[in-house]
Amino acid sequence: MQMNRKRITIADIAREAGYSKTAVSFAFNAPERIGAAAREKILETARALNYIPDQRARNFSLGRQLTLGFLLPQDLDICLANPYIVEVMRGLGKICQDHGYMLSIIPPINDSIYEAVKKATVDGLVTMGYLVSGGVGSLVDLMATPLVMIDGGKDENFLSVNIDEEKASFMQMERVLSLGHRRLAVVTLPAPTLTPKADDRGIVSRRLSGYRAALGKYDVPLSSVRFFNNTETTFDDGYRAGCEIMESGATCVVTMSDIQAYGIMHYLREHGVRVPQDISIIGFDNICPYRGEKKLTTVNQPAYEKGRIAALTMFDLLEGRTVESAPLVPFSIVEGETLCPPAN
Amino acid sequence: MQMNRKRITIADIAREAGYSKTAVSFAFNAPERIGAAAREKILETARALNYIPDQRARNFSLGRQLTLGFLLPQDLDICLANPYIVEVMRGLGKICQDHGYMLSIIPPINDSIYEAVKKATVDGLVTMGYLVSGGVGSLVDLMATPLVMIDGGKDENFLSVNIDEEKASFMQMERVLSLGHRRLAVVTLPAPTLTPKADDRGIVSRRLSGYRAALGKYDVPLSSVRFFNNTETTFDDGYRAGCEIMESGATCVVTMSDIQAYGIMHYLREHGVRVPQDISIIGFDNICPYRGEKKLTTVNQPAYEKGRIAALTMFDLLEGRTVESAPLVPFSIVEGETLCPPAN
DNA sequence: ATGAAAGCGCTAACAA
DNA sequence: TTGTTAGCGCTTTCAT
To answer: Would you say the C-beta of A9 is within 7 Å of strand C?
Structure first.
């Protein structure tokens, strides 16, 4: 196994080479600021002593970390089980790699995102799926850590990378209403952790308002919609909700995330309910078909692109470029095999 | 947008509260080592001044980082597109979360894993898919950074979490040989970046030796096997290889990774080749079916579990517990719908 | 061209 | 109980 020999420091090299620490530092990071002879001698001894500069100390001294943080809205094993989130991460990470940065996945600490932020050592934070109102918002402000949201909400202090949530959810709902569905089950995302008070700027509220608009257009009363508000964004929890949904009498399920939808489909199939003949279903995100289920009709979100844009925006911030606002990214409804007119 | 007000430091609090920095430090991190009155006064002023301890400085001083690093074998966007790797990461991350750690994804810098390691600020490194021989091995030794491999190879200096590669690949190959296949296409993993010299301890070599053993048992000459050694571990590159494979006359494809296999299947289906009637295929890893392809017969690896074990091992190392060796994790052949006897 | 020394913000051994 | 002070390893200003 590895032996923990003590690290060689810059002082060792300085002493051994007969130069100052400054000289050594320059030899490594600013060759032009030191004589050729001195530099050679220094690098020589550094090599001989197997000196590796301590990146930790360097970063600390330079006040940077060469790391972007990705703040997870829920437990890590839930988030990484969601292909949509992973795809966002892939976009984020690609840009990090291009900049020589690491991407740090930051799960909540004891269910607290706030605590996680306090412990995080990163140059910038990217959040996903919730509003930064209140606690975390002022915390990052105190820490002088730039923050960019993905799927966040309107906030005067932070940028958010989003699709047009109202419009997308309007179209999603309209798609099924136009097919004739009138008895609906709507599965929402879990209440955002960071919005203590009811807040109409978060992603859930905005989508709900899109739904309401569509329902209004088709004169469908809210009472004919059954809401499922306690479903985690997981396959398993979708599956779990399947039972109640099946028994709700709905002819169509509208979910705010594909991963839930696939869980629901799995349950339905296991229980002899045919999709879409018996129950139609439409999702949100557009992840790949899951567990052998048929391809979902859904709202496509450019996940990878969202990650990329968020990271690029973050580097703009870090490198002092002014950023007016994050752009709306495009979405579209993609056809799968899970929608048809209601049976009767 | 955020305003970058200057951070309050421990010195500010000390001065303002009329105590020393030590006292402030204790007030936060060792309440029992300071009087109640002093503590109260200090926390009071800290609150008033919105003081947030600088985690960077704290970590630097304590010589830790509260972060585990996950060293990627290839570009980040390739790795995160592989569900097998993501699942490993999920296992790693879960344990990190349990320990209040972050998980840092470390992509190569300019194609160099070595450079990435030098820049990384983490308490421990977990690698994936290659041997740590040579450069990186001695580097982490100099940096005194503990390292644990996943899918690495035999190495006297580092632990590796693996299945029994020889046995698994033997069984994988035997599975198709026993069905009667004699003309085979074998798709390997790309040559591990970190093994400059031919090395027989890496994962690819070990699996090849399993293949040889199985072929020997069935008296099948190596000449009846067509090797594809330049296929990246991606869906797209599998797809790309599909053409040559189709034309190779093989009745069965044996791949070292599912993601390649699904790419190949996609190509075959698009070109009217039926799986398994025309060409059988067997994979490795056991990821979920991809892009609507049928479920692959494959070797199941407990990816999540591998990640967990690697992380747990790492924390053993970090917390000074002695670790003899990483255990072999179990594997199994799982039946899909992609295997049948050869046609003629 | 080179070096002394003062940071960076926090911890902790040691002294009082 | 509390404070002084010397680190942690590197960067960088400012003399020389």
So the answer is: no
Q: How far apart are CA B256 and CA B17, in angstroms?
A: 64
Residue nearest to nucleotide D7 (CA to C1'): B61
Strand D nucleotides within a 7 Å radius of protein CB atoms: 1-13
- Tokens 């820490």: give the residue: A143
Structure tokens at A190: 């879990």
The span from the CA of A115 to the CA of B129, in Å, is 34
Reading the block at residue B129, the tokens are 């898919």
Chain B's closest residue to A119, CA to CA, is: B55
Beta pairing partners, B66? none
Decide if A118 and B144 are in contact by the 8 Å CB cutoff.
Answer: no
pLDDT of residue B4: 52
Asked if pLDDT for residue A164 goes beyond 90, the answer is yes
A208 Cα to chain B: minimum distance (Å)? 27
What are the respective helix, strand and coil percentages of chain B, to the nearest 5?
Answer: 45, 15, 40
The closest alpha carbon to A261, from A230, A216, A227, A295, belongs to: A295
What's the fold here for domain B67-162+303-318? Rossmann fold (3.40.50)
Query: pLDDT tens-digit profile of B263-321?
Result: 999 999 999 999 999 999 999 999 998 888 999 999 999 999 999 999 999 999 999 99
CATH fold group of domain B10-53: 434 Repressor (Amino-terminal Domain) (1.10.260)
Nucleotide nearest to B20 (CA to C1'): D3
Half-sphere exposure for A32 (CA within 13 Å, toward CB): 0
Q: Which of residues 55-84 of B touch A (CB under 8 A)?
A: 55-57, 59-60, 65-67, 69, 75-77, 80-81
Alpha helices (runs of H) in chain A, residue ranges in sequence order: 10-17, 21-29, 36-48, 55-62, 76-79, 83-98, 113-119, 135-142, 165-177, 203-217, 235-247, 258-270, 303-318
State whether residue B178 is helix, strand or coil: coil
* Positions 49-108 in B, CB within 7 angstroms of strand C: 53-54, 57-58, 60-62
CB contact under 8 Å between A144 and B66, yes or no, is: no
Q: How close does chain A come to B283, measured CA to CA in Å?
A: 17
HSE of A271 in the Cβ direction (CA atoms, 13 Å)? 17
Question: For residues A3 and B158, what is the distance between their CA atoms, to the nearest angstrom?
Answer: 11
Percent of chain A residues topping a pLDDT of 90: 88
Please tell me the pTM assigned to this model.
0.95
Q: What is the mean pLDDT of residues B199-217?
A: 91
Q: Strand order of the sheet with strand B102-106?
A: A159-161, A147-150, A124-128, A67-71, A102-106, B102-106, B67-71, B124-128, B147-150, B159-161
Closest CA to A214 of A248, A246, A254, A261: A254
Q: What order of strands is seen across the sheet that includes strand A297-300?
A: A225-228, A184-187, A252-255, A280-285, A297-300, A332-334
The H-or-E segment that residue A222 falls in is none
3-state per-residue secondary structure call for A279-318: CEEEEEECCCCCCCCCCCEEEECCHHHHHHHHHHHHHHHH
For residue A198, is pLDDT > 90? Answer: no
B139-178 residues touching A, CB cutoff 8 A: 139-144, 146-147, 157-159
Give the residue-averaged pLDDT of B38-59.
95
Start-end ranges of CATH 1.10.260 in chain A?
10-53
Which among A8, A56, A291 is the nearest to B121, CB-wise?
A56
Residue with CA nearest C1' of nucleotide C7: A61
Q: d(Cα B219, Cα A66) in Å, to the nearest integer?
A: 55
Taking the alpha carbons of A197, A198, A203, A206 in that order, is the dihedral positive or negative?
Answer: negative
What CATH fold (topology level) applies to the domain A165-300? Rossmann fold (3.40.50)
Nearest to A282 by CA among A337, A215, A206, A211: A337
